[in-house]
Amino acid sequence: MNKIVKDALILFAITLVAGVLLGFVYDITKDPIAAQNEKAKQEAYKEVMADADSFEALSGDAYSEANITATFAAALQADAENYTADEITEVVAGVKDGKVIGLVVTVVAGDGYGGDIKFSVGVGADGTYLGTSILSISETAGLGMRVKTSPDFLAQFKSANTDKFVLVKDGSGAAAGDEKIDAISGSTVTSKAVLRGVNSALIAYKEIYAAKAVTVGGVSVE
Fold this sequence. Notes:
By secondary structure, this protein is of the alpha+beta class. The protein has helices at 3-48, 68-78, 146-149, 151-155, 188-211, and strands at 54-57, 86-96, 99-112, 115-124, 129-136, 166-168, 180-182, 215-216, 219-220.
């Protein structure tokens, strides 16, 4: 047999076996990975909306996994701050005793110093910020990573009811409950990315409640 043909057949056989093995490993691991991801999401939802009994998907194709980013893209772009670097990837309703008590909005902030930052934001039915849970982040340890590891930064947002948070660097944002948020020293880019992502979540909240046509299992979001 021609050596070139023989070598080609050997390479093909190796590639075929490797492909089959990879497919086998994927089939074995995909369900456990999906279950772990879902568990992490549910824990994040509960962290930012502890009073909810359950978290339910919004009804309608506009809020499906395939369409939700596009649903909110125009509103993010239309804002004066232009939040086009952010993506809304999921919105669920927190439900307690059969009533919607708020929304949990998952955002991918695209302008972090080390890349995308993904987190979930809880917003009460009256628009009050409830909390943020970081899902994935690759910022610098000891600097930008402090938005996740240090509670002080995110604590500034707590209990505020505002249309938009504003980043400051003069110490005036230390108190919780207002729109001013102090940037982390040495990590302005990361601080700004998270703040803008929270603002994007508030935009999504306002769009949904303004529609007054969104339902969760037949219960209106009003």
